């Protein structure tokens, strides 16, 4: 085998403002190897991928192609060099057909412009090679995530990519689809492609990869041969500490039912979802990206309509499609994307905290600044918020502290049911533990917590019960004692008969 | 090799393709049906509406807006908008007329080329502001709408050019016919066919759709987004310059206020014609049909003796109806795709 790596990163660093996303990381990719990139959320994997794909330029360090230093001024350069990236969220053109998505900018041409027949045949040939059934003329809008990824892989194949980076490609796939993807990956490996594979599922790394590089908090921890280490070793490298200390869920006695969801259905999104959350309980809603978890939360909170079923809060039926009614009934929703949905980034900390509960800080028709400030100060202390001044825009806070502001906003209303969607995504480890402590305390004080999380350790450590969704259906309900990484993942990927 | 794939696929993917095709065609077909109904009803009330003189008038009236709608479509497809077209028409119409009036010896072809070039320069200013300086198109072209008109006023200084000041060979551009079809309409038709072909069959044409459909993905796909956006504005500006020439030739009397407010008619035509205002889909054929429909309605309302003030309101209602129709169709397509995907998954 060739001893020169196709692509190397040498001592690469990248910072965004004060956040050092990647610190002096080196990585060699050899032809014919599948290299795993491991690390927790926020460890710097995505930034590294964006450096490889030319989206970000490293602040320091070099990129070597066939041993020669190169600079990627943009994604076009990286593609030219044979680097193709399959992103977690495929980036397709929804209005255009599948074949145009594959060949955009490189459509086969005849004398009379684009040769659609040749393009259709080439696309079909690629799909045959991948062993998948897709219609080249179908618009990309409406494809499942798995199919969108296949379009992306077909695109990479058509470009004769030498380095294929797959950023959590399996996160939203079912068992069959994963097997199919691995088949494709192995074929590419045999053809001399270098693959960089990112996944949160350890067993997939151990099945597919030859080497693994682990990142933690932006730094390089180790590069090992998969054969030399065990999954436990890998977890220890990723986390850098024992798991038990991280998730301090207090034992509480479950009280009366606070939230009751009955046969909730939104056509084409989720079907027949029924569950209860009791006061003092933390119930986790686990599943793969795209399984319909956030959609269920949005429907419960009244953002989206539902087609059938019911939601009861404290024994009273909730009016559908009304966030106002949901809030009045004591529901609170901390959304997945805090920058877009949870906060007004330009507004101050105190104003953001005051947003969801104006009644308490109102004097007649006006908002009382003094009342707003004192309430914000009170919550800042209770949540141990780290800030310079309450009048600062939330934009300047770290991700974890921003999340605390979102929490404070809702907690200030004194909700009886709190729904949190990915509460610790993109938050550093220390603050993560604090958010967990907070959720645990809330449950202890009698709040019913429904937590959507894609991080298994968080689910297993925090939840009294684990509900698992797969393709729009609730497929398993596991009490704490039975919830393990294996049982949850099996249900989430549809591999169990549950 | 594709035999198994296609036979199995025709059930699953074919349904979606048919659906989307149908919706896309429904828009253009819908306009054709609306035109047919309009002509049938108005013709029944007043048969002169279907006469040659009336049809010729409608073609003449819609030609310039159709030409501008084609240019506007290029820009709208990329998820931008050009509000300054009317000012570019005014500037080029007046500029061309003035040069001809002051220098009778200048060949007409040179004047046409000059107007198109001037339009392209105006388009380049818009393109650089939007594509390179990243000023939102709505704001940038609103600014140039005033700026270009201001240049026009300063240049004119209150002057007016009359038909008598311009050579007949130039005026013929706006008034003569070929086989009974007015020349401006033929020009618009040729431009329509050429641009329509380019958008469908050239890589650069497809890239305009890609940019409007998903700007971030366009960057990741290595498309030179900036260059394409500038090009779309330049082409739109050049077509506005051509429209300015036709305007001057057709109306003969030109001052600095020419075409004021026309940009809204153009955008209305584009939207009625089914071009998505947020980019990524729609055709120039639809936009041109939209222009034809709006011009026909204006004529029909005049024939039916509807108050001129009410006509504006009716045009507005039509525009809203078109957008509502779009929205309903889009929601239905999304729901159908969702349901289908779900069925397949189960």
From TrEMBL, chain A:
Family matches, as InterPro entries: AAA+_ATPase, ABC_carbohydrate_import_ATPase, ABC_transporter-like_ATP-bd, ABC_transporter-like_CS, P-loop_NTPase
Transport as UniProt keyword: yes
UniProt domain ABC transporter: residue ranges: 7-242, 252-496
Any one Pfam family match given in the protein's UniProt record, by short name: ABC_tran
Subcellular localization: Cell membrane
PANTHER family recorded: CARBOHYDRATE TRANSPORT ATP-BINDING PROTEIN MG119-RELATED (PTHR43790), D-ALLOSE IMPORT ATP-BINDING PROTEIN ALSA-RELATED (PTHR43790:SF3)
Protein name, entry field: Rhamnose transport system ATP-binding protein
Organism: Nonomuraea maritima
UniProtKB/TrEMBL annotation, chain B:
Pfam families (UniProt xref): BPD_transp_2
Keyword field contains Transport: yes
Species, as recorded: Nonomuraea maritima
Self-association state and partner proteins as the record states: The complex is composed of two ATP-binding proteins (LsrA), two transmembrane proteins (LsrC and LsrD) and a solute-binding protein (LsrB).
Membrane topology: Multi-pass membrane protein
Residues passing through the membrane, by range: 29-52, 58-76, 83-101, 107-130, 137-156, 176-199, 229-249, 264-280, 287-306, 312-334
Function according to Swiss-Prot or TrEMBL: Part of the ABC transporter complex LsrABCD involved in autoinducer 2 (AI-2) import. Probably responsible for the translocation of the substrate across the membrane.
GO CC terms of this entry: plasma membrane
Domain of life of the organism encoding this protein: Bacteria
GO molecular function: transmembrane transporter activity
Protein's recorded name: Autoinducer 2 import system permease protein LsrC
